[in-house]
Automatic annotation (TrEMBL):
<dbReference type="InterPro" id="IPR029464">
    <property type="entry name" value="HSDR_N"/>
</dbReference>
<protein>
    <submittedName>
        <fullName>Type I restriction enzyme HsdR N-terminal domain-containing protein</fullName>
    </submittedName>
</protein>
<feature type="domain" description="Type I restriction enzyme R protein N-terminal">
    <location>
        <begin position="28"/>
        <end position="132"/>
    </location>
</feature>
<feature type="region of interest" description="Disordered">
    <location>
        <begin position="230"/>
        <end position="250"/>
    </location>
</feature>
<dbReference type="Pfam" id="PF13588">
    <property type="entry name" value="HSDR_N_2"/>
</dbReference>
<feature type="compositionally biased region" description="Polar residues">
    <location>
        <begin position="230"/>
        <end position="242"/>
    </location>
</feature>
Length: 383
């Protein structure tokens, strides 16, 4: 994929958007989305691109805006929205439902011509689950265009894209297995260390449990490739990175830059920044970066309560999946056994949040919370 062609496409798209920011859906398709498909190598004037492809649904037939074909079978669905529209969970659920009806469709793209979200099928779950793996906008393409090859005709036809999806699926299964067997893994580590070196002057069980939980964090990192590929990469790769603890799944518009060290990514964010898959960032652009992790942790939970009524969707007191004694959220600054909730911060709705946790503990518990509302989260800047 030629970088000059990508630059020309980005510049042309911005010129079109600036001249007509309220374009309707049809104009958005013709002027922004169809050039994007051509950039990926798909021939709009051949049988490999079908417009208004009919998808059978339980309630009757519906149509998806574009189907990218391999022979007679669709392999990618593209759902278009007008440039002024925000991509929402409603549209994502709609695209997921379309993909579910066609067994051969492993990839889906939701776009308004400026922002893009990519779905793929995870066949390692019980049943097939459509998951979001990539979110980017035109600015991200200018920074690192290499991940476009994931959706190119060449990658789809050669099976390279399927290899990426397979790796994501295996990693998801590993994350699930580690979480499910956390107690057993912790006990095995403790037993192995004690049999080798004997008693140690530390809480070996707690340290072993944190090791297992950190393994989940590393697997999350391994699964993500958005803005974590080096400029020399020819195709998307799944790598772990170390700008200190975590960065998540392919969400939002990450202005990352490669700094020349194969193990370090400069995200361009300062402070303890948290970003959600709906594009929200804590703290927002009008706020000063917080100097304490627990302040941003609290602000992030406040956002989930305000925007998604989080505490109405979970049982209070709320115990994360990895908790055995201390709850994460309660109606008072106490744990259910009566112990004081150390590092308790009052939330926007009057509940209390337990923040006296390690860095990985804060990250894992926030991930646990967003799982309740089918979202993703990433940690940027000083994390």
């Amino acid at each position: 994929m030629d970088e000059h062609d990508i630059d020309a496409y980005i510049n042309q798209s911005y010129q079109i958007i600036e001249s007509n920011p309220q374009m309707d859906e049809e104009n958005t398709k013709v002027k922004l989305i169809q050039p994007f498909l051509e950039l990926l190598g798909w021939d709009l004037y051949s049988s490999e691109v079908v417009l208004e492809y009919t998808v059978p649904m339980a309630s009757g037939n519906t149509r998806v805006d574009y189907a990218l074909m391999l022979g007679d079978s669709p392999v990618v669905f593209v759902e278009a929205k007008p440039i002024h529209a925000t991509l929402t969970d409603t549209e994502l659920r709609q695209l997921r439902s379309y993909m579910r009806q066609e067994l051969a469709v492993d990839w889906g793209i939701l776009t308004n011509g400026e922002s893009f979200e990519v779905l793929t099928k995870d066949r390692h779950q019980n049943g097939v689950k459509e998951m979001s793996v990539l979110t980017f906008n035109l600015d991200d393409l200018r920074i690192d265009p290499s991940f476009l090859s994931l959706l190119s005709k060449e990658s789809i036809h050669s099976g390279k894209s399927d290899e990426v999806a397979e790796q994501i699926g295996r990693t998801n299964q590993a994350i699930q297995d580690v979480k499910t067997n956390e107690d057993q893994l912790t006990e095995s580590i403790v037993a192995s260390i004690e049999s080798t070196v004997g008693d140690l002057p530390i809480d070996l069980t707690q340290q072993s449990r944190e090791f297992v939980q950190n393994l989940v964090t590393l697997l999350h990192d391994q699964r993500r490739f958005v803005s974590h590929t080096t400029p020399s990469s020819e195709s998307p790769i799944l790598v772990s990175q170390s700008y200190d603890e975590d960065s998540t799944d392919s969400v939002g518009n990450l202005p990352a830059s490669y700094d020349g060290d194969s193990h370090t990514i400069n995200t361009g964010f300062e402070g303890y920044v948290i970003r959600f898959s709906d594009g929200a960032v804590v703290p927002d652009s009008e706020s000063e970066p917080h100097t304490k992790q627990n302040m941003n942790m609290t602000a992030a939970v406040d956002y989930l309560i305000t925007k998604y009524a989080l505490t109405e969707q979970i049982e209070i007191p709320y115990f994360p999946s990895n908790a055995r004694k201390n709850c994460l959220i309660n109606t008072e600054p106490l744990h259910p056994n009566g112990d004081e909730m150390r590092g308790a911060y009052e939330l926007v709705d009057g509940h209390y949040l337990h923040t006296a946790l390690s860095t990985s503990g804060k990250q894992n518990n926030l991930r646990d919370l967003v799982d309740n509302i089918d979202m993703e989260i990433e940690f940027l800047g000083d994390w």
